[in-house]
Specification:
Number of strands: 23
Low-confidence stretches: 116-128, 130-134, 327-342, 432-443, 511-515
Shape: extended
Order of helices and strands: HEEEHEEEHEEEEEEEEEEEEHEEEEE
Largest sheet: 7 strands, mixed
Oligomer: single chain
Number of helices: 4
Radius of gyration: 32 Å
Strand content: 25-35%
Amino acid sequence: VAKLCVCDLLVAQCDTNCCCDPDCSTAEFSLFTTCSVPVVTGDSRLCSQKAAVYSLDVEANPPEMRFKLIDQVNPSVFCIHAANYKQALSFSSPEMPTSENFDQLLKQFGSAAFSAEPDSWDVNTDAQNPSDANETYRYEYGVPVQTVDAFLRLPSPVVSSWCSDANPAGFLVNQVTKCTRSVSVENCGDIQAVSMLFYINSSILAVPKSSQMVNITVQSITVQSPNGTRTLLNGNDVLRLPEIVEELCINIVLGVSYHITYTDAGEIIEAAAAFVLGAINKEALSIQQSFAISFAQANTEPVPLSGNPGYVIGLPVRAGYRPQGYPFPVDAVFAALNTNKLSQLTLLQSTSSQDCLAAQGARTPVLFGYNMVSGCTLRITAAMKCQPLAQTLLDLLKGQSFPEYVASFGNSQAQDVLDWVPITHLRLSEQANNEGIYNLFQSSCQIPVSLEIEVKWTKYGSLVNPQARIVNVTAKITTTTLKQLPSGRERTIPVMSSVVFTDVSSPAVPGYKAWPTINVKLPFDFFFPFV
């Protein structure tokens, strides 16, 4: 490692701030501000190895470069003790083309995209291994969805933007791809990838290495005109193949969306495809195709997630409420999430008019990690009654159905009661703020003027891949005293709502020995399925 220098890019010249560059002189080192590569190591997966450490001594005059060689210990419990397979430490030399192997290399690497399909994807259902007869198979996450001839293909760009049909669709892996395909009117009928038949003619295996097959049905057919207008056809049982009509090639496949239904046993029971068909003229040399695949479990209602497991910044904070009859039965807790389309924490949405009465009903979801402020103005007249006005403002700030709980994780399920954090509600009067008195709509006319939501979250799990977890949510309503206005007088007050996210993760304190610690890094799924 003392001879390695990854920042040495210029030949026979000194690279700026490259402390390991042997071409740099002492005078040039004195002009450095920092070491761009302070530590040089070999394979980071080794349990123990030498590390070259570079630094600048800014107290010296002129500043000098310092170098030392140290023994670096990998804190991970999963590391390589000895690298005894020397071939894996460097790239293998490519096979050089010769007159004997040129044709074979051209066949293997000559196309725009190339791949070697494993033999396990080619399933021969007629000749099964007798030892596998009693073994139960099921699809697992990421395993290619198998068909009778190979696997379900989801074309995608590989090396360039051109479509490659060698991309397998992985089980439970939702994908959306776009790629370009070369076409022409003269041979549009001979190109398989622009025909509907290419995407539905191969049946899917219900489970790997089985004889049970699931046919791909046509869910819908949408025809797109040259100007972009789309029309949904009524009949889906008609197979529309490409054909030339008046110098146009019609029924060209522009998009395919697969929808796969599976059971909790990992068995595919239904497959459907939705097509978008279009037309090309003689001037067209290529088309852009879009492909998508989604999976849904049978007999379940899909619930949008905001992370898996931790929250993803920018996705809505999931929320719910406790149904009547809680805590019996426990399984019914948060069941409303499955049917409630508004299972999100929302905030008052500002309007261009800034009129509170006109903004009623306009809500915007609270997005994890995004601090937001919104508001409006309310014009109060002497004819307005206190209690109806207070209730109107409360509904404006909190919405019609303010949730009672917030999901601690982005993938928290409705039946997992301990995965939901109750929202703490506080009410504070502006007049009693200095005294710290919480006021609950006393006899005087108190109207709410602000809603402040604070979401506290922490980093959870592995240090390598921490997950965002919500641990506390507080909703504070601030009220103010509304004095009776003289007849004919008006008053305008601002109404505000806000949300702030606070990271309450406990940082590591150097030298703190009160609690025993071990500095290791485990795989993210080390404790699966336990938390």
